[in-house]
Amino acid sequence: MSLRGTTKRTTPRTVAGVQPAAPSSPAPGAAFAYHRTGRLAKWLGRGRGRRLLLSLVAGLVGELITGWSGGLLFPLTPAVSLAAGALFGWLGIAAAALGQLAALRILHWGFLDALTFAVSYSLTGVAGWAAFRFVPKLGRGIPNLRSFLWTLGAALAGGLAGALPALLPGGFEPPAETTVWIWTWITGALISVALLAPPIFLAVDRYRRFWMVAMPREVTVSDRQLERELGGRGEETLVLFSPAPSPGSGRSLWMGTGIVAATAILALSLVWLLPGGSGWTTLLYLLPILWAALRYGLRGGILAASASGVCHLLGLAALAVFFHAPGIGLEVWAGRADLLILSLAGAVVGWSRERELGLREELIESNRLLRRDLVRISDALMQAVEAKDVYTGGHLRRVGEYAVAVGEKLGLRGQSLETLHYASLLHDVGKLAVPESVLSKEGPLDAGEMEMMRRHPEIGARMLERLELLSGAAPLVLHHQERFDGELDGRNPGYPRGLAGEEIPLGARIIAVVDAFDAMTTTRPYRPALSQEEAAGVLRRERGRQFDPQVVDAFLDCLAERPWRT
Fold first, then answer.
1. Where are the domains of the chain?
2. pLDDT tens per residue across span 326-353
3. Fewest C-beta in 10 Å: which of 271, 288, 534, 559?
4. H-helix segments, 208-249
5. CB-based contacts of 432, cutoff 8 Å, min separation 6
6. What is the arrangement of strands in the sheet containing 235-240, beginning at the earlier edge strand?
7. 46-212: what fold?
8. 389-561 CATH
């Protein structure tokens, strides 16, 4: 029988005649709630939860502390708003504003006034986010002076924008005259951001940078002191090297903290003893600020200025509350432009120090490259000389090695020793102008050939004089064939100038001794090599005549310490 068009139906098995219960389907409302909760958890799990919670708590606590202090403490809210916006973006701005709104409600503000103030506070965060988002070459780790100045600019812009509701009809009523209130609002924003925002930025940049939202083309400081390009969400981040040491090491941090604390105790003691001179006492904070700026650069100076300002304002509040110090009232921070100046001083001096160190690094690198090229030029000239005179293979390097050893024994250091080194390597460079037939002649040279050979020091000196990096070696090359006694006649006369004694440069006298010893112990076309003992005997006989006695003694001491290698 055909099964086409029929359907086989199966019946579930039963146990003891009991039919299984049909599977239950979730209620539509429960499925929707589960789906939405999962999406929310996934959204918060991408770091947004940390940013939201941290900004919310910071906004709440900062506004509560400011409100409960009754005006004695400088406002914390502007710094919190700006930091939340710059570090965490729009989510941070909204969460900080929500926390501030809740704090104002806890402080028994009306809802409309609380909302207006929270929105005003958030404008500082918007200004901070916009600065780091759209202004090029800024970094939230404060890698350059530009970043710090734009942070203060964002605080000023946010403070101005936040004070505008006081001018609007129907807005909240300022607690004092409008102009004074606006001034207090703006100065509060500047002081708050100058003292608190940099430490917040540096702490998050150093320990929790992965919490930050990405900013395109942000400038950061690499702890590995390398320049490289990082890719993040398709947006390039430029990483620069800051040459100044990091102020984050434990020992340095405690040392700086101790210096700031000691300065604060001294300054506040003077405020208590000399109420009329409280403005001058802040100059004492220049000591830790300049110390940190010169030692740790831009960020060290800014951190020291922030710590000094916070300690000073907290100390003033303590003097007012516990000791009833005269001349210290509410909102004393509003007139403390000196604290802002100290922050700028620390930033500028630290930036100058970093720039100085950077230029020094560039100079060292340029010098290294120049010296590398100088070595290559010297090697090329040496190879050219040795290729033309096959009997002098290795001669120049041996003379160079032992001439430096003798120079060190005679007290030459630094530039003088380096000049001797290059002069000894290139003392025969003038032989490039001497025909090979003269250089390789097996018999004695005639008068014309001898005259041609004796011109090689002058030719070599003129060649080196044209090279600025080697011009210092030219006099040594020129006079390395002079005799110590100035003799111009005889079998081995001095040439080309006939100088004698101390008139001959010390480097030339050193090259003369080492060059003669190597020539005597090397086989030449016109004579066999002498043994090292025979050559040393010749040097002793000519000591004080052809050669400088002091140089001969130093060279023989070097031979005893390091055997001659042919």
1. 46-212, 251-388, 389-561
2. 666 555 555 577 888 999 999 999 999 9
3. 534
4. none
5. 381, 384, 385, 388, 459, 463
6. 219-221, 235-240, 228-232
7. Arp2/3 complex 21 kDa subunit ARPC3 (1.10.1760)
8. 1.10.3210.10
